[in-house]
Specification:
It is a single chain. By secondary structure, this protein is mainly α. It has ten helices and no strands. Helix 8 runs antiparallel to helix 9. The longest helix has 28 residues. This is Nitrate reductase. Keywords: Membrane, Transmembrane, Transmembrane helix. Its main location: membrane.
Length: 190
């Protein structure tokens, strides 16, 4: 479990610098340049992600059950996950979704965390999905206090359409194939 926790600390820690240490982040950028900051951010994120994946895999070998969700929660999870990938795609497209929601990736991350907590009840699940859920909520609140996102241009409807289509296609690929390939568990059940 310690590998998973270390991975979460690194991954969520580097993703929290704007929340807890915006001055440090800006000072590092001013002193060493934006490329140095982006490289540091990327390396720490990747190391954290590798540790999360490895630690979660280790924790699944000897699971500690915190709660046992009803089987029906899988259906609700599938439903809650449907908008997640379109929201992730919309975060990179200056359409009406991004203009209206401001932070679609964080909203998608919140849905992802809730959905996975509904269907999974081990300690590793609570740490992983709950930790990322709490982080996303804090980051969303922090971003709201920083003010609205400026798109730089008027929203474009075709950006929303492409986000929705791409997101639904990725969702279907994950549900029917990739989730089981990557994580050894089919979201559709056994």
């Amino acid at each position: 479990m310690s590998v998973l926790i270390l991975g979460l600390v690194l991954f969520l820690g580097i993703h929290s610098t704007r929340i807890v240490a915006p001055g440090f982040r800006q000072q590092l950028i001013d002193q060493r340049g934006e490329k140095f900051w982006k490289l540091t951010y990327t390396v720490v994120s990747l190391v954290g992600l590798v540790l999360i994946i490895w630690g979660y895999g280790l924790a699944r070998q000897d699971p500690v059950i915190v709660y046992d969700p009803p089987v029906g929660m899988r259906h609700l999870t599938l439903l809650l996950m449907l908008p997640v990938f379109p929201l992730f795609a919309a975060s990179h497209n200056p359409g009406f979704i991004k203009a209206k929601l401001q932070h679609p990736m964080l909203i998608g991350t919140l849905l992802w965390g809730v959905a996975h907590l509904l269907a999974n009840g081990t300690l590793a699940d609570v740490l992983l999905f709950g930790g990322i859920l709490v982080w996303a909520a804090i980051d969303l609140i922090s971003n709201v206090y920083r003010g609205p996102v400026r798109l730089g241009r008027e929203p474009v409807l075709r950006k929303d359409i492409s986000s929705i289509v791409a997101g639904v296609v990725i969702y279907l690929i994950f549900v029917f194939w990739l989730h089981e390939l990557l994580f050894g568990v089919s979201p559709l059940g056994a």
